[in-house]
Fold this protein.
Amino acid sequence: MPAARIRVRGQVQGVGFRPFVWRLAARHGIRGEVSNDAQGVLIHAEGAALDAFVEALSAEAPPLARVDRVTREAAAARTGLGGFAIVGTRGGPARTQVTPDAGICPACSAEVLDPAARRHGYPFAACTHCGPRFSVVERLPYDRAATTLRDFPLCSACRAEYEAAGDRRFHAQAIACPDCGPRAWLEAGGVAQPGEAVALAAARLAAGEILAVKGIGGFQLACDAKNEAAVAALRRRKRRPGKPFALMAPDLETIRRHARLSEAEAALLSGPAAPIMLLEAAGTALAPSVAPGQWALGWMLPTAPLHLLLLRAFGGPLVMTSGNLSSEPQAVDDEEARETLAAVADAFLLHDRRIARRLDDSVVRHAAGRPRLQRRARGYAPAALPLPAGLEAAPPVLAFGGHLKAALCLTRDGEALLSHHLGDLDDPLTCAELDRAERDYAALFDHVPALLACDLHPDYRTTRRAEARSAAEGLPLVRVQHHHAHVCAAMAEAGWAPDAGPVLGVALDGLGWGPDGSVWGGEWLLCDYAGFERLAWLKPVPLPGGAAAQREPWRNLLAQLDAAGLAEAADELLAGRPLAALRAAAAGGVNAPPGSSAGRLFDAVAAAAGLAPERQSYEGEAAMRLEAAARPLLATATPYRFAEAGSVADPAPLWHALLGDRAAGAPAGLLAARFHLGLAELVAGRARELARRHGAGTVALSGGCFQNATLLELCLARLGDLTVLVQAATPANDGGLALGQAAVAAVRALRGPP
Ligand code: ZN
Ligand code: ZN
Ligand code: FE
């Protein structure tokens, strides 16, 4: 009988992999054993159907498993093998991974909705294929005693399921039932209300109340998405005037009534990561305040049984937004929520399962044929990302990322751990989150960096933190230019090898510190991981008022029109604003740093089209409105032109044409469409020409502007014959920055002391 030693690498622990192997073995008549060890799962197998058995290991892997590699070598047959056994961990402590939290699986869904089942109506059902993981784990190795479920000793019925190899709850660490597990209750006015928690909550939502719901990775705020008074009240109380609210629907059919939904999007919504997906609004409208001025709405399905039961009881779509005041991190523990959300929520749907770690809902958008992460958190973190071949030998790196959309990146043994989204570091509470994540990831993954990486910007909190650690621990610190890091993130995610030569990177972004002391953000770079050459850029214009120019789009319109020789038009369009003072300041170089930012160009065009608010209530607000307006007219509009002189792309011709359109009474959407088309022509034309001139066969697109699906698709359509690297598993905005920094630091470490 043939015998083999089979090793499976990837995300194969804590996901029901050993019982899966056990069932496969039974089906294929295989004898032997399966165990966990430091490198994954190890199998000794004997039987005639070995080939089919090995093939099925990756082809039929359980839903939460990710099989990276299966290796097989011939082994000596063992005597006395009775059947197939699941054995414990072999060869010392396993380097167990933590898998991301997983949305409720179909089997658990059916169970909580089945009146005859033991867990009927139970909000905390879970199994090896679903349930909380990263949000409940306190330390490794991952077993029940290391999670917040340790507060709930298993009853005998749950214990039996936990120990039965054929059960889908075999070694599922987060299982629970009404007899032994967490419980939910509804609290109003500081008092737990008598009655069934979910039914009480649904009734209050139906009556137009706002509820704080303790979710998987933090508190959420919920209200009836069709009740304008409730949604408007939520905006007021949360102090969030414009930023779109996410929605949760009981099922896909409900989403289809309000949005365009492809099969691929439906599959991702229903899958284990259970993210928010941005979907084009279509069909029946919701309350106008859900997402003012947007063409896309963020939808998710119930992620936990608690949500499933609540949505079924309520029977329609709910606004489901993070439980915080605008810009602060969402609340995770009950006391914190009672305090910060007292003025927002009418009642609290609480439970006694502690949240070990704050995790926002992830946001995904389908663009250019595949889902792309816009915010990477619950359901995705902390899944490891493979680094390009050749980086296995690099010392462990800790990269600190940027300032907005902060996320850390830890590397080791050829893998990168990109932390969950931490938030914007303008907020002091988010800064505390950064410090906590730094400690948390180091402890959880037993990671000791030999090298640190950060941005060039001297005032980022992450830069200061990296400098402090470098000084305190004597660790070398690699400072990586912002847009170089963006492009390298796209390269690293695509597995671009360190010795594969340079790519032509295009970074269209908000703002990043340039090594020349100006602010960059519209760059064509020839780069590899070790370094870059800035080949071309958008014409720099002053950012009048510095940071204020980020919030107030009209300031960028002033700078752009003045630079295009259209100062009189600026006087007319921007009458009533302190133009003289800003011009004097810009002329004197006072608080008006020159910037080549594509993001600020979007702001200026949105302001000219009348689509920008006077002051943005969130980053990207004006640009998102511009994209929304552009979409219906893309097929018929013609592109605006840029003047290309040497390295500089000058939008002056665009401004002349745009003002002409405006004077002729063209609709805002036409201006928006012509701008998108013109920018895509510029991006692609320049990239193609520079790539050819410098012998680069591959283009990489990164930076926050490429989260604009319309721009991305227009650019890709114009680069169809080239290989183009675009991120999908990591965000193209600053949420992915740390991955690029880490790759740069790793390569520089391999090539000599930094
Ligand atoms: Zn399940
Ligand atoms: Zn139980
Ligand atoms: Fe950036």
Notes: The radius of gyration is 27 Å. Residues 536 and 646 are 8 Å apart (CA to CA).
